[in-house]
Amino acid sequence: MTQDVNDNTVVILSDDDDEEELVNMNDYDSMEEYEAYMQNTNRFASRICKSQNLPDDHEPVIHSEREQINMWKELDEMISKLKQVCIPDSMTLDDTETSFACGVPVKDNAPDVAINIEGIPGPITFPLCPKDTKRILNTVSEKSGYLDISKVVLNLSFKEYLEETLLPEMMAYLGVGKHVAEDTRLQANRLHICEEGQVLNLPTPEGAYGSALLILPTDFTGGHVQAVYKDQNAMFQPESDTLQECYYVAWYNDVKTNFFPVTSGYQVSISFSLVYTGTDPTVTTASLQQQREMVENCQFTLEQQAESQHIIESAAQILQSVTSQQEEVLVYFLKFSYTLPRTVAKELKQSDKMIMALLNQVVAQTEFSVHLGEVERKVEAQVDEGDKEDCPIDEEGIHLTQCVIKDTYTLTSLCDEGGNNLLQNPVVIESLQPIIQGVNWYAKCKPDAEEYVEKENLVKYWYAKKTALVFIPKFKLDSFLIKN
């Protein structure tokens, strides 16, 4: 999308690519006044609370940043190697919070579900109507409350959705490693129907490391599922979600499950086993739970420790050499942004928490300290001489420029282990190139605001605060804090 914008207009770019908010700069005396207004009104508060730091690969708006050399490339590559060795692939993709059990409504894009039952003519569709409820009840044994799955056929489109979408989703939520997840199948067992006052009764399946329950769209209340593991427990309440869509609960088989009675209506569900079909004899419920808990607690296997040790030592040597180059601060952006201060390391998303644990091992071998912090960026960039009369813009309405004139990184917060801000005022980072990932990390980010100054033939870009790990030489920390 293109848009005509005069030299007094700032384009405020929303998270939705189809929406832009235009703010007239005549309402403010300067870009600085506008930024202060945005911060005071907490315009971006919802963005920086566990939101992605880096969006999809956005086309650079400053041409010179497309191929700029990263002076910390070697250190960045070492950190990337640590991620490959110690952080599960699935976590680096979507950073799903894992647990011993999960309960999730099926997404809106799921196909409609229908079943055929032996002895009942025609398909039964959902949400369940009273007529079909009666037909199922006439088939199901009143004493058992279930039908063997051999008498039930799911429609093909939903069966494919179960295998291709829901199963991988369950694996992610349960923290099952990729090598096991790829050899796990969802084995259907029974169709259950519970009416008012009845309680679901599920035997623990043999030969499976986990179980799942798919609750089909019906009108009911109650039927809650409680999962208990060690001193933790989780309660899932599907009643509010299953009137129009399915809801699934999945858990490891060493988890104790308590099923609560249906208080009204009918709850119809299909029970499944999570069966490992691979050849690794060490794959058990206990071993999978142990691996999940190690990841959750940022603990690494002996194999990971051995493989990562030389990488940590190499990264430490590179980082230690930074002090001889008189760099004051180095910054490594996390995958997510958080509300700082008030956030501590244990509250980070799992992949960020793990990379912080790894980099703490690196820092332990150096004279650096590492802190959670927030970095803001302001850039002034030159418009190409040939474009003086008509500054080009991209399809999102952002002005395009040729090269950077002035680049300022500001540390707006620097937190101690308790989440307290050590800074009273923001501090400009004086390092020549403070970003370990290189300035092209920012080149992939869409600016949060811009100002086209036609008379000076330049564009001012502003990038809102992003959460990072901030590395400061210990002998410079006190003098650095005195500055503010």
Report on the structure:
- The protein is an alpha+beta fold.
- The chain folds into 2 domains: 9-89 and 300-482, no CATH class; 99-174 and 184-277, Jelly Rolls.
- Helices cover 25% and strands 29% of the residues.
- The chain contains 11 helices and 23 strands.
- The strands form 6 sheets. Strands 4, 7, 9, 10, 11, 14 and 16 form a 7-stranded antiparallel beta sheet that branches.
- The longest helix is centred in the middle third of the chain and has 20 residues, at 302-321.
- It is elongated.
Structural class: alpha+beta
Q: Mind telling me the C-alpha Rg?
A: 28 Å
- Strand percentage: 25-35%
Number of strands: 23
The major β-sheet equals: 7 strands, antiparallel
- Mean of the pLDDT scores? 83
Number of separate structural domains: 2
Query: How much helical structure, as a percent, in the residues?
Result: 25-40%
Shape: elongated
Counted by DSSP, the helix tally is 11
**Distance between the amino and carboxyl termini:** 43 Å
Unreliable stretches covering 5 or more consecutive residues: 1-26, 37-49
